[in-house]
Structure formats: C-alpha cells, structure tokens
What we know:
heterodimer, A: mainly alpha, 2 domains, 18 helices, B: alpha/beta, two-stranded antiparallel sheet
Amino acid sequence: MLFSSISFLYFFLPIVLILYLIVPKVLKNSVLLLSGLVFYAWGEPRYVVIMVISILVGYVFGLLIEKFRGKKLSKVFMILSVCVDLGLLVYFKYVDFFIENFNAVTGLGIPLLRIALPIGISFYTFQILSYTVDVYRGTVPAQKNPITLGAYISMFPQLIAGPIVRYSDVERELRDRTHTLVKTYDGIIRFCVGLGKKILIANALGELCETFKATDEKTVLFYWLYAVAFSLHIYFDFSGYSDMAIGLGKLFGFTFMENFNYPYISKSVTEFWRRWHMSLGQWFRDYVYIPLGGNRVSTLKHLRNIFVVWFLTGFWHGADWNFIVWGLYFAVLLTLEKMWLGKYLKKSKVLSRIYVLFLIVISFVIFNAAGMGEAMQYIGGMFGIGATGIMGAEWLYYLKSYALILVIAAVGATPVPKLLVSKLKDVKAGNIIVSVLSPVFAAAVLILCTAYLVDGSFNPFLYFRF
Amino acid sequence: MTEKIKYIVTVVISAVILFGLGSWFLLKEPAEYSESERRALSLLPEFSWGSVISGEFMKDFENASPDQFPLRDLFRSLKAYASEYIFNKKDNNKIFVADGHLSKLEYPMNDDMIDYAGEKFSFIYDKYIKDTDAEVFLSVIPDKNCFIAQDNGYLSFDYDEFSKKLSEKTPFAQYIDIKPLLSAEDYYTTDTHWKQENIVDIADKLCTEMGAPFNDTFKENKLNKPFYGVYYNQSGLHVPTDEIVYLTSDIIDGCTVTNYDAGKAVSYPVYDMKKTEGADLYEMFLSGTVAVSVIENPAAEEKRELILFRDSFGSSIVPLFISSYSKITVVDIRYIASGALTGLVDFKNADSVLFLYSTVLLNNSVAMK
C-alpha cells in the first residue's frame, strides 16, 4: 500500500488510528503489529509469510544470542541469523542476477527463477540484522515479547521504504511512549509536507521523466532536462516518503531518525552522502565499514573498505550492473576526495557545489537506467553522442510546461523555505501568520493531494523496488 | 492565536478531512457511471477470502477507489485548476486551453499509424473496389490543433506532411485538400468535432471534386440545450459551453437512415433527437457511432451512389451530401472489420468511394479493424 493513495489516506489510516486510540496501552503494539501485517499484505498477500518468518527468526535468534552471551554459541547464532536473513534477501532479490551472469560467463542456460521481489525486503532485512547484531554486541537486550519485536519490524510507517530505524533507537519507545498534542501536530504537518512533496512535486517530475523516455526526440537539452528532473524527482519522492514516515511515526508516539538533510547543497560528494539516505549510510558505516576496520587500517585496506561498502550500497539498491557501477562510481569519487580533491573543494563554495550537482546528476542517470547500455546511451546523449540534435520542439514545450515545478523543486531542495518560515516566526506578526497558516496548509495539502489522486494521476514510488 | 489553539485546529481540521471523507467514501452509494467523463466507473470489489488471498481484492480496491471517491468531479476540477493556475502547467492530462478552445495534444506524428491506416484503405480498395467503376477519393480532416497549437506554443506536427504521407500510401485515391477551407472557428470550442453549420463549403468542395452537384440551401436550427463537448468533460475546467446548430432541408427531412448494427435493419431520422437526451449531443448526427448506415434519398433526380468510409467527423457532414446522391452508404471500420463488408455494402453500384478521416483517428489508427 502506498501512503500516497486513497486507500491509505481515507481507509487504512483512519481505521488504524481509531483502533490505536481506543485500545489500552498494553495492546497498542499489537495494533501496530497487526496493522503492519495488513499494510504489507495489502500489496503482497503471499509474502507476508516471509515477513512473519523473518520476525520469528529475528526473535528466536535474539533470545539464543542473549542466552549464550559470552559463549561461542552466541556468535554462532548471530552468524546463523545473519545467514538466514541475508539468505532470504539473496534468494528473493539477487538469485536471477547471479544465474544470468553465471550463464553469460559459462554459456550455460540455467533457467531463471523469476521470483517477484517482496516489497521492502531490503529495508526490513537490514532492520532485523541490526537487531540481532546489536543484541550480540550487547548494545540492546533481546526482546522477550515477540509482539513488541514484531511491531518494530512490521511498523508500517517505515516498513517498506525506511528510514532504516534501528531497534536500539526505538527500543525505549516500544516499551513506553508518549502521545502529546504537540507531537500529533508535528506529525500531521510533517506528513503533509511529505505528501505534498511526493504527489505535487515528485509525481509531476516523474511524469516528465516518463515523457522523455517515451519520446523519439531525444535532443541534448532534453537529455539534460531529464537528468535534472530525475535528480529532483528521486529526492522529492524518497525524502517525501521519509517525511511521511517520520510524521506517521510521531502520530504513533515514535521519533524516527532524519533520513535527508538537504543533500543538494553539499560542497563535496562526501558531504552529499552524509545528507542523503542517512539511515542507510549510517547502517553501512556501523555494520560493514567499521567492522572491516574503517579508516584505522593501512591505506590499501582503507581503500578496500571504501570499495566494499560502496559496492554493497550499489548492490543493495538493485540487482543489476548499473547499480553496482553507481555504487563504485561513488567509491571512486569519495576516494579521490579523501586523497586529493577534498582540499581544493574547500576553496570555492560555488564551484564545489556545481561539481557536486554535476556528478550527482550523472550518477542518477546511471541509477535510473534500465541497465548499463541505457546508462551509457543517456550519458552519451547528454554530451551530444547519439542525440537527435541540440534542442527540439518537445524539449522546449516540456521545459515551459514544467518550469515552475522545476523551480519550486530546486528551491524546495534547499533549506531556504525552512529558513524563511523560521525567520517569520521570529517576528510576532509573522508567528501569528504561521500559526494561522499551519492548519490552512495541512488542509490545503490534504485536499489538493486528494484531488490529484482522484484524478488518477501518475503515482509510482521508486523505492518500492529496493 | 496561541500555540495550543494552532495545534488543536490543525489536528481537528485534518481529522475532519480524513475521517469525514473516509466515512463518506465507505458509506456512500456506489456510482456506476460518470456523466461528466462519459464512462463507466470501476466499482469497489465484493469481499471474499479467495480474492484477498490472491491479491485481486486489494488490486481492484486500489483501482476503484479514485472512481468511487465522494465529490469526484469537484476534485477533478480542483486538480485541473491547480495544474493550470498554481503549477502553470501548459496542459492537464494533455488537455489545454488556447484561443478560447479546449483541445488535446496530438503529437508526435505517428508514422506507423499512418502506414496502418494506408494498409487498411489499400485492403478495402483491393478487396472491394478495384474491380468496380467507382472513383476513389481521400480527404484528411485536420484536427483543431492545426489552427491553434503552434501559435500558442503547443506541440503540433506538420499537417501537410501528414496528408502527403497518407496520400502516398494510397495512390489509388485522388486526394481532396480541405485544409485551406478550415479555421479554428469551424470547430466546437469544447469538443474535438467540427460545426456542421461551418462546413457547408467543405461539403460543396468534396461533392464538386467527386463530380456530384451540390445544393447549399439549408435551414439553420439550434438545439435548445448547451453542448458540453468531450474536452469539457475531460478537462474538469468550467469554460463556456457550445451550442449545436444543425442544418435541415426538405430533402434531408424526407430521408431516413437505416442502420445495420444489430444484424438487422433499423431506421432512424437523419437527426436523431433521442440522442439529445444522452451525454453526447453530437451523437444526434446520424445516431452517432454506427458500423454501417445507408441513407436513401427518395427525392433524387438521378441515381448517384456514394460510399463513405469515415470516423465521427463524418456524421455531421453526411447530411449535407444527401441532396447530391440517391444513396449514401456510411461505413465506420472501427465498429466492423474491414474484411466483413461483403453483403452489407454494395460496392458494384457505387459511383464514388470517399475515405474521409480526421487526423485524430489516423494518428491513432489502431482502432481501425
């Protein structure tokens, strides 16, 4: 189920909120678990079994790891739990990729399994892994109540597209959380911001990208328009979903970590990755990079660690070579910045930002391509190779048609709107205006987004495939 | 306003919207048909465990929920206005407003579709016409984008090139160019079609080129209700409506139309006033979409027969041809396979065969059977 759907907004969410409000405190996690399973089953009725198995595996191994703490068996159970979780992920997400490449190398014709990808498996697998590893490390105690652990893993606000909420971050709130008027207000406003970002901006830009892909008039400037539009689209799509998740979390008493912090104002690619999909970056840092030795090893091993992490980051996003290349592209850039380029980037705020935007736009062309062939075709097209000309009627038309949305998106991707609201609040009259406009904003976004949904507009969601 | 009031008002308003519209959505009577969109609406699925386990229930629910949402037309209008006035989009679902006209983007020129239409016409010529004495003509009706799109910054293809391409695919047909006689004013502002009262000169030209005399004396009649064209309904915008004017004469009034849609002959008047009670008033011309119709003119002074292959634009021009022919057979190959005309259409006695199609259909000719 999509947050940005009629069925979620006007059917699922109101029912779950009523249930959650009327049940006693002791049953609130049960409502979360049940609603999470229904939310998941709505899109994937068969694969809800996989999720339940994953929850049980995490629960049992958590208890076993804790029971044998200090003994060898504890490590064995931790490794086993990692193997089972990663085994499920590899089977459902990567097995056809491996078969395809094995066939290509050996010339064999092993048939593909063509297994449908369970939605959000990459996200909840990482959550379970962080739980069992943290229990092994002694960072958190094992959860004795399977309903509580189930509520954590299947919690619908962050179930299928993150942020990747770690058990250690919400362990206290799973036991005891408060529901206040301020938190509810914050949750509603944050949810509406995310909903607006997703439906009014991201979907419109996604439509532009689809239009480009469908046209034969692929001119140089249309390639660039597509590349910029997709970079903004993916940001508004994913950060909008994260905003909705964080907002919903607040409605249910949770405080999820931030997932984006205006990545497009970064002055280096290193900084970009501290601001983009922060929960994933921190997960890889804590569970892969640091266990490998991080940067406290020889230069060669440090380089190896960077490349391993970025290979895995790319591969996590999708079972195709363009995702691996996308990850390694960042490994190269980050290595260059660490070894040489970083000091030059500090010299000019403008040039460093142009450098980041240029490289990020290119990276998302690779990311969104249907394989490396298309990625190379599109990048070539941006520089005139294989393009049908410099500019054309379609490029001009769609540039004009989407100009305002592109400008809104470009400004909205910076902290400027937030700063303006903050400045306004500093003045008494401004604060009154903000107070009056808050409910108007929430109502306007809900109504306008409903209008777009009712009209059956373009409404995909990118991160479902991960 | 204190902070606390702000919190309460925001929470209450949001709850009223979500719970209010949510309850209305689930409790309201299902709507089966949308008058404004002229289409059947998807209904919420019946609950069954089987459909839930297979996932069909959820899929159908997702598909139907926008159709069954309360105040659907109001929300569609809101989206259309937001798209145009807030986000400054040039079109909404490809519908745009230019020079007071609602229109739909028709771009790019689809060469495959032109080829497909040409192949269909060639097939018809080879199978039914080649061995007859009938002369064959082709004319392309430019859609109104030809006159309003480019000047207003909308995408538009080269209509002369379009006609040339189709003409080259149909060397057996003599091309009649009607584009110079048309302008934006000749089309309804809220609909795709042309106005009958503005195409008398077109009918004259077509008849003259086909060697038939033309009588241009008609009486103008106005339909006493507003015409909400197809784009009016699709756009969601509230713009001035059109009016339908239809032309009559004693000869037209004396004719009947025989339709062969249901496998048996059924007679209708040339202007079917029963259709004015429906959603699409344009269907009053020749009863709208019919596979094969025959109009016989008892007042004809000499035998002259025309077979017209047409789309919906043809419905409003055919009445103007009536005085020029003793019999007109009108065929719409969107509703009958072009290979199934034997026995239904008398090609042997035809003097002329005219393929008269709009660029809207020709550029999407996959609808031709």
